[in-house]
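Tutorial, part two.
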Amino acid sequence: MEKPIANTIRMLLALALATPLIIISDPLPTTVFPFIVGKALYFRTLVEIAFFFWLPLCLWCPAHRPPRSWTLGIVGVYVVIALAAALAGVSPERSLWSPTSACKAGWV
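Running the prediction step on this input gives:
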């Protein structure tokens, strides 16, 4: 069970290397930025599907978990602090995005 899931994850991440070649064309709806939106949707979808396969794999097989390091701990603490700050803000939806975009949009 472990090997097919790991191979699926590798295949999805290898397909992510084709991201520069993606352009939205006729059958799909047009967007303001056709050269960027298609790439972003394609890459994010592949990464999310790969994460969906990786999560149970790392829970079942410790060999597939990332090694423990102080860097991973610092990133985890940063994510928890940023999430707590966003939830404690006046508008949690707007707090999750960067403060510079909020200033440019006139929210602050």
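Helices lie at 2-15, 34-60, 70-87, 92-95, 99-105. In part three we will examine how such features are distributed along the chain.
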